[in-house]
Each structure stands twice: as structure tokens, then as C-alpha cells.
Amino acid sequence: MKKKLGRRSGPKGQSGPESAGAQTASHSFHPKLQLVRLAGVALGGGKTDKTAVAVIEFYPDQKRVFLRSLRERISGSVSGKVVGRDDTTADDVLCEILNHDEKDLSLIGIDAPLQMPKCVRCRLVCPGLKECREPEIKWLRDIHRRRERVKRPNKMFTPYTERAVEVYIANELEEPFHPSHALGANAAPLTARADVLKRRLTTPLIEVYSKLSLWRIGMALNIQKSHLRFHRHAVDSDEARLYILKKLIEKEITFVYQQDLRTMVEQDIAFEAFLCALTAFLKLRGQTEKRPVGFPKDESWIEFPRQKLQWF
């Protein structure tokens, strides 16, 4: 099992991450900074070791993203040995990493829902879906009516399990995507965990859908669609991840140490944490998609890359 990695030096001419000084935790990009540090979290269940964290650094002068550290299999059982306690949870370990071990983070990308569905958040007397006048429900009704023209059967939306952004990604993009509903059977435990974690973390968070981030990044790099669709579950998924990472390295977009390259090839959760960190970087660079016109202003948004990317 990989332990917490130590500090690494930056590119030639830099003394390393600590020489940069403190950075502000904002959602804007500051080109005069010596470096910008961001993190990606691939979140697993709180009682498992299926969580990974990737921390990257962007050096504007070198126009290169460096993978600073990679931690996978984060769990409470390991933490007890580290801090000398038996009751330390995986959440404690994750917050320690992001709040203290990795200092001066500007932004964290996490691949778990950061907002509950509208009907769960609502405190009004419910008149039912047909009569509801809340902007989020009206928007969902409009999408549902438009789908009736092209989709059969057109199942009714359930705003107590799904959010507007999940409906948008599933129906309005260039490729069919099917993000799990925030309170659906698959994602509900992660949504609950993320809801607690976001109140403990001190760095701004963005929500990421790693499958869509990979698709947009890969298409911008002219990577075959088969590699992008089957990077996780296919028999040759490790080869697909290696191919994608090598493309990023060959294009001089990112630098990855050999041991971390091997880990991301072998562990899909580590690879997805890296994708979340890259998405956070693209967000700071202004290279993620904006909300569509008319999208409910109080609904959360999933950040994903533009179709045409300008990395630096």
C-alpha cells in the first residue's frame, strides 16, 4: 500500500513547492504567481479504502502541470497508526491531507455531488410536480417536454433524487452520458459523505464528473473514442489509461513521475483523482463550460472542460 508521499522539487530553477508562499483560495487565475496548487479527489465510500487524492502544481513560466503527489486507498484503518489513535476515520485522514498536509491549495475538484436535489432542499408545502413553481422544477418540466419529441419512453424526472445538472449532461451534450443521480442508489452514500466533508474542508470545491472530463480532454487530444469510453471497465482498461497519460505527457501538458504513472495505470481511482485535479486547473484557466442560458441559478453545476481547450 502506498504511503503518503513526501515533498518533491518543482521544475528546473524552482526550489520546490514551499518556495511559492501562500496562495489565496480563489476561483480566479493569477498568472504572476510562482505556482498554483490544486487537488483532485476521487471519492469512495467512507468505510472503504476507495478514495484517492492527486495534488498538481502549475508553473506559469514553464507552462507545465506537475503531479506533486498521489495518494490512494485512503482509509481510517491506516490513519490510526499514523496519529496514534484507533478512532480516526477516513474523513479525518482526508481532511488532514487537504487542510494541513497539502498547504495553499487554490481549488479542489471532487467527483461527488456537492448539493442535494431540489425537493430535498425545499422547505415549502409541496403542491406536486405539476403545480410547483420553483425555477428548478419548471426547468426540469421544460426539458421533459422537449424530450417527448425524440425519446420514447420518456420517463418522468424525480427531483428528490436527481438534479438539473444531471439531466442536462444526460440529454444536452454531444455524447450520451449517464451520471448517477445524486440520491440514486449508486451515488447517495457519496452525496451524503460529500455533504459532510464540504463543511470540514477549508479550500473552495468544485464538482467534477470524471467520465465527462476525460471525454472532453481526450477528444481535444485526438484520442480514440474507444480508449475514452472503456478506460475503467474494459479488459484492457490499464492499457487505455496508459495511452491517455502518455498523450498528456507527449504533448508537454503534464509531468508525471514514473511511480505515479504506474499507480494511475494500475488503479483507476488514482487516475480519476488526477482527472479531477486537471479539471480544477482548467476551471482556473477559464477552460470549463459555462452554465447554459436559463439554467436555474440556485442549482449547482458540474465543471467539465470545453470542447476546444487552450491549456496554457
Describe the structure.
- Helices cover 36% and strands 12% of the residues.
- The chain is α/β, with parallel strands linked by helices and 312 residues long.
- Strands 6-3-2-1-4-5-7 form a seven-stranded mixed β-sheet.
- Strand 2 and strand 3 form a beta hairpin.
Short characterization:
This protein has 312 residues and is of the alpha/beta class. It has helices at residues 76-83, 90-101, 118-121, 135-147, 164-171, 188-197, 210-220, 225-229, 237-250, 258-266, 268-284; strands at residues 36-42, 52-59, 64-71, 105-110, 205-208, 254-255, 302-303. Strand 2 and strand 3 form a beta hairpin.
Characteristic key phrases:
7 strands, alpha/beta, globular, 312 residues, 7-stranded mixed sheet
Radius of gyration: 20 Å
Helix content: 25-40%
Low-confidence stretches: 1-27, 78-83
Strand content: 5-15%
What is the count of helical runs?
A: 11
What does the average pLDDT come to? 87
Number of strands: 7
User: What is the spatial order of strands in the main beta sheet?
Assistant: 6-3-2-1-4-5-7
Please tell me what the overall shape is. Answer: globular
Characterize the main sheet.
7 strands, mixed
Structure class:
alpha/beta
- First-residue to last-residue Cα separation: 35 Å
Order of helices and strands: EEEHHEHHHHEHHHEHHE
List the SSEs and their pairings:
Layout: E1 36-42, E2 52-59, E3 64-71, H1 76-83, H2 90-101, E4 105-110, H3 118-121, H4 135-147, H5 164-171, H6 188-197, E5 205-208, H7 210-220, H8 225-229, H9 237-250, E6 254-255, H10 258-266, H11 268-284, E7 302-303
Parallel strand pairs: 1-4, 3-6, 4-5, 5-7
Antiparallel strand pairs: 1-2, 2-3
